[in-house]
Write a structure and sequence with these properties.
The complex is a heterodimer. Helix content of chain A is about 75%, strand content about 0%. The radius of gyration of chain A is 25 Å and the shape is globular. Chain A is an all-alpha fold. By secondary structure, chain B is an alpha+beta fold. In chain B, helix 6 links the parallel strand 7 and strand 8.
Chain lengths: ~550, ~350
Amino acid sequence: MRARFNFQSLILLVPLAFLALFYFYPLGAILGFSFFGSGALDLSGFQEIFSDPYYLNVLWFTTWQAALSTILTVIAALPAAYIFARYQFRGQTLVRALTTLPFLMPTIVVAPAFIALFGPRGILNTALMNLLGLTVPPIQLLDTIWIIFLAHIFYNYTIVFRIVSTAWANLDPQLGNAAQMLGANRTRVFFEITLPLLMPAILAAALLVFIFDFTSFGVILLLGGARLATLEVEIYRTAANLFDLPLAAALSLVQILFTFIFILAYTILQARLAAPIRLRPQAITRRALKTVGEKIFVAANIAAMLLFLLAPLVVLILESLQTAQGFGLQNYFALNENVRGSATFIPPTDAIRNSLLFASITVALAVAFGLLAAYAITRTRRGGGVFDAVFLLPLATSAVTLGFGYIIAFSRTPLDFRAALWLIPVAHTLVALPLVIRSIVPLLRQIKPNMREAAALLGANPTRVFREIDLPIVTRAVIIGAVFAFIISLGEFGATTLIARPEWTTIPLAIYRLLGQPGLANYGQAMALSAILMLVSAAAIALMERARFGEGAEF
Amino acid sequence: MLQIQNISKNYDNAPLLRDISFNIADGEIVCLLGPSGTGKTTLLRIIAGLEEADAGQIVFDGKDLRNIPPHERGFGMMFQDLALFPHKNVFQNVAFGLRMQNVSHNEIITRVNEALELVGLDANKFAARDVNNLSGGEQQRVALARTLAPRPRLVMFDEPLGALDRILREELVHELRVLLKRLRMTALYVTHDQGEAFALADRLIILNAGQIQQAAAPPEIYQQPANAFVARFMGLTNLIKIETLERRDSEVRAKTDAGIFAIAKERASSESRFVLLRPRALERISESSNGTENVLHGKIVETVWRAGHQQIVLQVRGSEFIFEWDGGIELNRERFFELDAHAIQFLPNGENQ
């Protein structure tokens, strides 16, 4: 037993050391900087944040936009959650798979997609102007709170839809029947039985959405204009534009405190979710559509859902093909040009090459550390939960905070990594690692000791046991983890924008800079680059959905 | 009175219930008995209004229930998996139906306590308990209290004791019958367990392949099974296929693989397809036979002690028959087994009709 324990601690040591150096150390640097930024203890940063109406405003805006976005997302996603939980219809699996797209899309793609749809040059405005003979775009959503709400709903719809739908599908319909037999009409059944039982799931989903909206960065930066700023955007501006590092550190610390509280609340709710509701196999709880009314209700909902979730992505491709001479591939060809003094510093094709390089390194690092950590978590009886929580922590720290931590932690000897190219994939790995571990652990848990024993009793030698039992499951875990890491690295924006040098420009950085420049050519190239990023991400997601598909077939 | 009239229901384009009709008188306990998958639960849900029949009517006290939703029918139902509300405690579960009737708060307390006492649970001890932390038997009792508390006009049970072990089940079934009779409840109870049905029912309805096979009081069903299916379902397994049927003046003779059997004419019909040898049919074991009718020629291959009787397993040309026999025996010797003609019945097929 003892020897085994030592072996496990060794396995854990590698990812833990990585976490210590590239997560806890930068976090500590922020903490130190926020209190001792000028050498001695200095609380003026915090004083400024909590007394200056500007920062109080930022804090207030961050909170209410997140709260409202969350409520709107829940309301928007509930009908679909119900439909997928209670009805069975053709194409259900496909539609469910399609809903993963928006959630896993990089924010830096979501913003251009919404600009392509609602922007002054966007498809809706162009169509309306042509149709009505207007000279001014009639839809003015950019830089308003409304487009931020829309983008947030678009982005987080899937979270609410998936979590609530699963909980609803596992809810025993017999409970509703029992209430009916006791004299409750449909409304009372919903409010007395269904809603209270779904509440933990709804709250958990809402809290997760709230955390994402609270730390929203790319969407606000690109769609919110100069007036609207969340805490996350403010940290970025203070650090990157104003170079006020102590203040940025104080802001980061406030943000970290908030997110930690939210994550803690989420974890507690998650534990409550596992509470004593007897789950039912979904085959029992779902039924085919019968009446015409049901069919219309479901069809209309699915249509609205697909239109809302897919239209921005489709429009993005259309916009990228739009040129001054009509439809064409000019925007794509232009990506190879190196204009002197261009917005992106390097030709966008070089950015694509950079991104692919960083993503490859990230995949290798994240999968290696993820497997080691997941193995240790699943094989350690006691303490597994603690390590699980420790490896989840980076999820509670926003990307901008992390990038900012890197700036102040790794700019002095002996840890001066400012010129180190690998710092970017390391940052990406940290952002990806919690999700990679989360996706690998459940798969590894599927390998039960008695499966190995059963295989051995059926005549498989240890090598054979590994090849037939462990390997197929581990392979799937690796594919899923790799895809997660790949997508996250490709689309990572917040941390990269703070630590990347001009010559390391990635696709998201290039898109951001192109969008910040006037001119049809820049707009077209931004759309083309976004479309490429979206298609590559979509292809990777499709690959993952295929690898995931087997999970359901196990049962 | 509940009247079930010509109920039919298709499921996945195959008939699940075919032209089902029967009545339940006030205060009567009827058991719907049949193997799994014969549509018993569906019939119950149609009566409850939770599902719609393709044809036929449900009439209660002369009123057609067609357009009345389940929550306005005033029926109670105890579900197979009990369906206790996991987010409500014992008191809140039992009070639910009363709250739906807008019963006053004070009366709810009185009636919940009454209902809990009725099912043998101490209200002081159980009212505030979490339903998820009760034992299986306690959960059954809470579910029963919840079903009875609103005083339903008809109470239905969908195999509510399936999950319990046999001894607890027999105990609860007995209690349930005493309770239902005391409250003069009209009840319809669905089960696939004949022991449960026999212990509970005033009248049994045997269902198979979506059709009623027989409806009668428990002793009658056991004494006079309407067909081979019912016989087999009652555990009467000594069935022999009839090759030819011959009518004579006073008796009917059936030729089979295992021999020739003859019974009085009145006791056979033209649809007879099977000979049933009842478990107590064996009269005498002898080394030579006096007649050729109602005699089996074979050997005893096994004895089993069951329910206070010795049972012998008789092998006749590859078929096995089981009889109760308390006399002496010799294993594996060829003998003649003479049977009592009154314990022999000719039955129609009954399956796949």
